[in-house]
Design goal:
Length: 65
């Protein structure tokens, strides 16, 4: 769980922009609302994958070199 907390600490601003954009698009019309709802599972899977790849179990960043 520490890996996801570390990922959130380093990329919180990006996720706020993504979800803010989704909210903005969902307010424009119904088609964009349903399209933005498709991004929710995509964002969740992306967040979990990056947490597994970039951080170890203790929340330390993994050196990829």
């Amino acid at each position: 769980m520490k890996r996801y907390y570390s990922l959130w600490k380093s990329t919180w601003w990006l996720w706020v922009l993504i979800f803010g954009g989704m909210f903005f698009l969902s307010r424009l019309n119904d088609i964009l609302f349903y399209a933005s709802m498709a991004y929710l599972p995509i964002c969740l899977v992306t967040f979990l994958w990056f947490g597994l790849v970039r951080f170890d179990d203790h929340g330390n960043e993994v050196d990829a070199t």
